[in-house]
User: What shape does this take?
Amino acid sequence: MKKAYLFAIGFIALGLFMAGRAMIQTIVPYVSVAEARESTRKVQVKGKLVAGSLQMDAMRGETRFLIEDTKGDRLPIVHPKLAQGNVEQATEIVAIGQMQGKVFVAEKILYKCPSKYQGKQMQEYQESSQ
Amino acid sequence: MNTAEWGRLVIYLGAAGAVAATVLFALAAKYEGWLVWARRAYALAVFSAVTAFGILVLLCMRSDFSVVYVANFSSSDLPWYYKLSSAWAGQEGSFLLWAFWTAVLGLLLIRRLKRYEPLTMAVYSSILAFLMAILTKQSPFLQYPPSEVPPEGMGLNPLLQNYWMAIHPPTIFIGFASLAIPFSIAVAALLRNDWDGWVQIAMPFVILCWVTLGAGLILGGYWAYVTLGWGGFWGWDPVENSSLVPWLVITGLIHGLVVQRNRGGLHRSNLLLALLGAPLFFYGTYMTRSGALAESSVHAFDALAKGALGLVVAMLLTYTVGGLGLWLFRLRSIPAKQTAEGILSRDLAFSLGIISLVLIAGLTLIGASMPIISLLIAKQSSAVEVRYYHIANAPFAYLMQLLLGLVPFLSWRKVDDTDVFLQRISAPWYATLVIGLAVAFLSYFMRLPVAVGVFFLMLLATFTILSNAILVWRLAKRSPMSIGGYLTHIGVGLVLLGAAASAFYERKAEALLTNGMTAEMFGFKVSYAGMTHPDEEMGKDNAVRLKFESLNGGKSFEARPVYYFETHNPMQPRRVAEPHIYKHLLYDMYIAIGSDGGGVIERTQDPGRTLPIRRGETKKMGEYTIRFREFRIRGQMGEADMSIGAVLDVEYKGKKTEMVPEAVLARGWRPAKLPGGGEVAIFADEINANERQVILHFFGMPGQTTMPDHVIVPVEVKLKPLINLVWLGTILMMLGGGIAMRRRFAELRQEQQEPAAVPAHVGQKPKARTRPAPGVTGGQ
Assistant: This one.
């Protein structure tokens, strides 16, 4: 009986340890623009769309824009496909991805637009992913 | 009073009835005389919930747009079955569906409860009371003032206009509603200090919950696979997780109850699991409908109204704290009997299996809650990547899979002799090894990619399928009612095998096609052959025709994937790519337009969609009157980000707006949004500076979205081997669950007819043999 219990507890402990490690590896932390620039892993960064910076490149199928965080720090972002919906009206953009050289390559962008739905004014996030 | 006002009235009536039933059933636990009145109050609640649901269905069928809900989720051009399903397409309707099933299931439950009736029904009615109260705060029966009634509804989201989506919610909500049953029975058991009596009553209902919730999950997954175009059936989305977690807990509970019936152990954990299911779903409801996950989920539930959300939170807290508190309070008086006796015993296997299921549920819950947890800890919401769920759950999934293969050959109660055990499992084990070697050899030969982890999982799944199949074969004639569990386990093995193979050995091919161009994909010559309705708007019913001609003498076919711009909510248009799935016995060919949202790139000179215009000119385009006022140049000449904008005065329905579509010299463009949906854009290479002329291109305009002739279609084809095993597996799981449920209901009926005469182990074979045949040893 002892053996059975030891076996079970040992296995479960090992499993939970691996799950904990997985959590640490796969969580995508929220960072500021300055931190994002220095980061080497996948992060998410939030900011305002810099007015007039949005470019939809239909030929390459890319979306490029600049965001500015609350400290006024700016970051160029490339999203490797044409973003859905009305990004240019976004009040806030969350980009999830990784730095590649000097640009932030966002595999996914979420953007909050002032939207009117069911007659109620509310903020909604939209998503565009790779 | 009009119909909607009747609806509002019956909701209040139902809430009152359910509250009264709660109080009266509680009283009846002490004073039996109140039972009659309690039942009457409950009957009133059921009548009200059913009537309210009936009224909503009626309003949807009648397309009564004076009702806000109907105007938001239905329209008069829908066929009757989608009008019907708009009754549960929205927030309010889905809560009403939940309340409806809760009320109706109570009728089934109340007949089987006997001495458990007062306490169980008191708890159960209180849950119904909460749901009805939420509906008073978030009513589906609100009406527009007569002057503001819209002439037409917004229609049902085209994504939901699908056969599977029509039956998925009614099914899964039976599951959600039935989670309240084990919870209520367990509370009654704790209050009565009765640690064994509740098991036989709860058993069939727990399986009912498992089957309906499971079927709902499967239907949802199948819907995602056939409509969303990304190629998978499970995405670890918060909404999916909030149904998966309680389902896993209920799966654990079924196995715990089996142990308790056969071995008389696990009293504490069974009560705990029964108490966890419903609160876990309340938590999921809070998570997915509060807007707390707005940043990480794409599911389109709006945030609930404040009052209704408050009630959801109150419900969550009441039943979590109440249930767990009661359990802790009684913990020391609940018997704790050792069951696991050795490594080679069914007892240990069941315990480990239950622990694995609960841990997978827990780890999934933590992952799904990460946005909330991190918000509380770090004030910033961070989500985990999808691969977290794979890595974290893997060890326990492997363990479970191994146990599923071993269990048919283990006995209850005693530790098996190792030699005998090895002899029993030898047939499926060697068969698995042979298949494994063959696959490994084939992979090497065909230069397929190899991953030890995936291979090992597939091996374990094969072992599970074989060893359970042997047992089903043996039992099928002797006691066909007892094969349910084993059949389900074959199904689990098939699902895992199919999922692993179709994901890991998936092959992908992409091509950009235009008129007259062909591409070779998976032995087919593929060409674009226009639209199914070339003169009509792009939409759900207008598919892209792709000719697939076999290059090696096989069958040729025409694929019809759909691609359209969905403007159901004009402020949030989205591109939808519905795949065409070419079914083969051994694989699916999953044909979709664009990788989600890559989109059909159109650039055309079609006069219906383009408008050459000079500076100072005023022209009409559809409902728009457009004057091209002037150019606006930004940036320095020669710089890549220099842009040239055309300042336009646009008049639409009597309103004038200025908009500036821009061409960016680095071959990009910034379109301007038109009022009424759609976009207008200009391109750098079409700006004629001498003539002061630009060409306006119109995209996604309502009524003007016919597909142009020379369109570029990005085609994505995925070859998914053995995906059919997943669907076969899910069918077997549901079949097995159905058989088990029938058996347990029959047992319960039998036991309640002759209370004393039947011992605890009903339907079990006599255990007279010295060496019992595998699997028949303990019933199931």
About this structure: The first helix of chain A runs from residue 2 to 26. Chain A has a mean pLDDT of 75. Chain A has one domain: 29-129. Chain A touches chain B through 60 residues (CB under 8 Å).
